[in-house]
Amino acid sequence: MAATIGVAAEIYGSLEMLREKRDLLHLSAWRSAVAGRMGADTRPLTSLVPVRGPGLDLFALMGDVPSVDHAVDNLLHAPVSRLRREFEGLEFHPGHLPWARRVSEGDRDARRELAEAVRACHRLTVEPYWRQGQAELVALSTRGANLVLEGGIDLLLRSIGAPLVRWRPPVLEAPYPRRVEVRLQGRGLIITPTIFSKHPVSLLWDPLDTTQPPRLTVPALRRPLTGTEPAEADASALRNLESLLGRTRAAALHATAEGSTTTELARRLNVTAAAASQHATVLRNTGLITTSRRGGSVLHLITPLGLSLLRPDTLPQG
Predict the structure, then answer these.
(1) Which residues of 3-35 are buried (b: 16+ CB within 10 A; e: fewer)?
(2) What does the pLDDT average to over 201-205?
(3) CB count, 10 Å around CB of 231?
(4) What is the pLDDT of residues 87-110, one digit of tens each?
(5) Stretch 164-187: mean pLDDT, rounded?
(6) DSSP secondary structure letter of residue 228
(7) Preceding peptide of 214 cis, ω within 30°
(8) Are 82 and 28 in contact (CB under 8 A)?
(9) What number of other Cβ atoms are within 10 A of residue 111's Cβ?
(10) Which pTM does this prediction carry?
(11) Comparing C-alpha atoms, which of 219, 144, 212, 140 is closest to residue 182?
(12) Are 131 and 254 in contact (CB under 8 A)?
């Protein structure tokens, strides 16, 4: 199970949810607070939500990183061939076609404008709600881990996403726009909790990329998304964490909540890369973070255990 589908996919998913006409259940208060605040600064991205059919795959263009800075950097350096491929066949509003064409052709200024719009949408639709959202993501990941401990992978696959997902060994059946058979061929399957998703359950699968495992997204929200918690609670939790880990290491754990490379970690802690790597090693060896390679760098990301120390309110209830 993944910790998150990434900030880019959550941002785009939030825009798709704003277009939904049906009742959003746990997102009604969120939509009421956000809907009337979209403006010119968000338009370069909101105009890229198609009028019908599938949406733009920001996950493919910006990755599953939890940091908006890292996601934007991926967008600015995405190959033009990938941009063209992701825009192909999408049904944009006729008035937005020239803009979509500029972006898909890799226009440098258009990319920068889109990047700023991604940041603007993040500040409005995701960032103020991320504390609660992240707690829900961790809770679902923890439930998944507990299911594996109780009954193995079989119990996990029978429980996640039911009744939309059906486990009929050795086949897992999940919703998809057309009937298709996906053979994992040793790649595995990543189950990914999401906060904002137009579909209750969906399969993300790139038939042209045989190296990446498919992802099954499942909804994480179990209570209404209402916004940020009081700042005093954050400050108190951070002081307690500093007493436990020390100020620098507590700051390092805090930085990994949004995902951080070793270079980014060193810059945020104002230490050398070697010192940042040492702090990351200690946190990883105690199960508070994970480290995975992303291209030429490594990404440090907090674990559910680490997040429960950083934010005690993320501990599973019941």
Answers:
(1) bbbbbbbbbbbbbbbbeeeeebebbeebbebbe
(2) 85
(3) 8
(4) 998 999 999 999 999 999 999 999
(5) 87
(6) P
(7) no
(8) no
(9) 19
(10) 0.78
(11) 212
(12) no
DSSP H helical segments within the chain, as ranges? 7-19, 28-34, 43-46, 58-62, 68-76, 80-87, 97-104, 108-121, 130-159, 231-245, 247-255, 262-269, 273-285, 304-310
Which class for 295: exposed (0-12), middle (13-18), buried (19 or more C-beta within 10 A)?
exposed
From 312, 18, 305, 318, select the one nearest 10 (Cα to Cα): 18
Residue type at 219 in one-letter notation: P
What is the predicted pLDDT for the residue at 244? 82
C-alpha 127: how far from chain center:
12
Which residue matches tokens 């440098």? 108
105 vs 199: CA distance, rounded Å: 29
The b-or-e profile of 158-195 (16+ CB within 10 A means b, else e) is: bebbeeebebeeeebebeeeeeeeeeeeeeebbbbbbb
Residue 106, classified by CB atoms within 10 Å of its CB into exposed (0-12), middle (13-18) or buried (19+), is: middle
- pLDDT > 90 fraction of the chain, expressed in percent and rounded: 36
Mean pLDDT of 244-263: 85
Amino acid in the structure at residue 254: H
**Distance (Å, whole) CA 65 – CA 72:** 10
Q: What is each CA distance from 194 to 135, 163, 220, 243, in whole angstroms? A: 11, 17, 6, 33
Say if residue 35's pLDDT is above 90.
Answer: no
Burial of 114 (0-12, 13-18, 19+ CB in 10 A): buried
Residues 6+ apart with CB under 8 A from 117: 41, 42, 43, 44, 45, 46
3-state secondary structure of 169: coil
Alpha carbon distance 61, 158 (integer Å): 32
Q: Which amino acid, one-letter code, is at 216? A: L
Q: How far apart are CA 240 and CA 57, in angstroms?
A: 40
Interior angle at CA 41, CA 40 and CA 46, nearest 5: 80
